[in-house]
Write a structure and sequence with these properties.
The complex is a heterodimer. By secondary structure, chain A is mostly helical. Helix content of chain A is about 65%, strand content about 0%. Chain A contains eleven helices and one strand. The longest helix of chain A has about 30 residues. Classes of the chains: A mainly alpha, B mainly alpha.
């Protein structure tokens, strides 16, 4: 005879609602282990089976996966921060203070976003180091290494564009220093070598393109905000799709031959 | 956690259609296969959990910096870039902005992307080794370490006017930015640069002919050029620190 628990369990797991969401049992069998992966859109990023070697934490240190996880953390905390923030010089700094003193857990939210970004820069660099040290960039994985380098660059740019948004002295002068470098670009920067060839001036050079102005101001804040919240994440998501897909298509993570 | 060896997992999991890849060498080679669920997924979950805890503790313990409101009229001294770009800012001491801020980052990105097209060998793939890939790993680690050393110097040892301040020195004591520097005249700098790259390209081929034979002409040239460019950065730094050299090459259009 079935106990009450078993009956309840059966009633739930055979209901139309449950069956519409979960297409298989949870009983541990090879078939169900495979279905866990193939019938789940998030898990089916993975193959059903992998070489035992690929499970070793001391091989990957989970660095690529953790970088992606931190990207998700940044997306969620960033979304919540957007409720409190207006990218206008008149409001940006006040909004930071409001977040700190008036919003419940606002300061923790900002800390999570800030430190998560720092951690993500570290994990993406270490991930690159691990892939290099294990020779995992070699054919047939060379293009995925290139995609990975562009993801490293996008991580740095995401972090840099976010740096301006608090609109404090740290943000303002760091971005001033950073974007002044753009003015030194040869040919297309107003202060770079050969700037006269194409007629690059402060009003039309590459720094002006970045800032929407000749110095950091309201246009720069808006541009960095849009790039930080929409533009760069879109690029990064597309590059990540290619990156993860290529890991599978290039034969999974590398292993000794 | 039950982590059974599942040599036949793929076959057992899905009914193999006739003429499936069951006999393919790739399949039979994966004799030590593991199921992703749960063998990999629980490790990923634990890793995410640990990092979440670390991040949460970090966020509860230390507040993100927030200085006074941005004031274009009041320059911060020193005005530092975010830490991951401070290495490039530190290079501004030794190079003009178009090299430190544009040239070197571009070369780093292009150089990194070029690596798999230069090193196409297959030895020691998929495992950690130092001995079997001494050249590749040595140069890469040198560049990686240089990036971090420059970050540490810029982040922790630079004070007002970008002068060196040790942690125990007060930023209130001003240090003079005055420094007597000199540059190589063009008739010295040009041959020196030509010799650096010329000998640099020629000597390894002479010493290690197998390197040139293995890589071929264009891969050899790219590998050597990127390596020479990498080491030219610390060389310029030492020229500046030891001999007070500002530029190794002065031209009417640009200086290096």
């Amino acid at each position: 005879m079935m106990s009450q628990n078993q009956r309840l369990r059966q009633a739930i797991t055979t209901s139309q609602l449950y069956r519409s969401i979960f297409r298989h049992d949870y009983v541990d069998s090879l078939r169900n282990r495979a279905l866990e992966v193939t019938s789940n859109i998030f898990l089916h990023l993975h193959p059903v089976t992998i070489p035992r070697h690929a499970l070793s934490v001391r091989f990957t240190f989970c660095l690529g996966g953790l970088t992606f996880f931190l990207f998700l953390v940044e997306t969620i905390t960033g979304l919540l921060l957007m409720f409190y923030y207006r990218p206008v010089p008149d409001y940006a700094y006040i909004d930071m203070k409001t977040l700190e003193y008036a919003a419940q857990f606002g300061v923790v939210l900002r800390n999570l976003h800030r430190w998560g970004a720092h951690l993500m820069v570290v994990t993406v660099m270490l991930h690159m180091l691990r892939v290099f040290l294990t020779g995992s960039y070699r054919p047939p994985r060379e293009f995925n290494w290139v995609v990975g380098v562009s993801l490293l660059v996008m991580t740095l740019l995401l972090s840099f564009t976010g740096y301006l948004l608090p609109w404090d002295q740290l943000a303002f002068w760091a971005v001033t220093v950073g974007t002044n470098m753009a003015a030194a670009t040869p040919f297309i920067g107003a202060e770079g070598p050969f700037h006269e060839v194409l007629g690059a001036q402060p009003l039309n050079d590459v720094r002006f393109l970045l800032l929407g102005d000749m110095k950091v101001g309201s246009n720069a804040l808006l541009r960095f905000y849009v790039l930080h919240c929409v533009g760069l994440p879109l690029f990064a998501i597309v590059a990540m799709m290619v990156h993860f897909w290529r890991v599978r298509k290039d034969g999974g993570i590398s292993r000794p031959l | 956690m039950d982590s059974t060896e599942v040599a036949s997992a793929p076959e057992a999991a899905k009914a193999p259609p006739a003429g499936s890849r069951a006999g393919a060498p790739e399949r039979s080679a994966s004799s030590a296969a593991a199921t992703v669920f749960p063998d990999l997924v629980y490790k990923e979950f634990l890793a995410a959990l640990l990092v979440s805890i670390l991040l949460l503790v970090w966020a509860l313990a230390i507040n993100a910096p927030l200085l006074p409101e941005a004031n274009p009229g009041k320059t911060e001294n020193p005005a530092k870039a975010p830490w991951y770009f401070v290495g490039l800012q530190e290079l501004l001491v030794y190079f003009d902005p178009w090299i430190a801020g544009v040239g070197i980052p571009t070369l780093i990105i292009v150089g990194l992307m070029a690596i798999p097209y230069i090193d196409t060998s297959h030895n020691a793939t998929g495992r950690y080794t130092l001995g079997e890939r001494r050249l590749a790993i040595g140069h890469f680690l040198f560049g990686f370490a240089l990036w971090w050393v420059l970050i540490v110097i810029g982040e922790f040892l630079r004070g007002p006017n970008w002068q060196i301040y040790w942690p125990w020195q007060s930023w209130l004591v001003p240090k003079s930015a005055e420094e007597k520097l000199w540059s190589f005249p063009w008739w010295l700098g040009l041959p020196l640069l030509a010799a650096y790259f010329g000998i640099g390209l020629w000597l390894p081929r002479r010493r290690w002919p197998w390197l040139y034979e293995r890589l071929g002409k264009s891969r050899y040239a790219s590998a050597i050029l990127f390596t020479l460019l990498l080491y030219s950065v610390p060389i310029k730094i030492f020229l500046r620190l030891l001999l007070r050299v500002k530029y190794v090459l002065v031209t009417p259009w640009f200086n290096i």
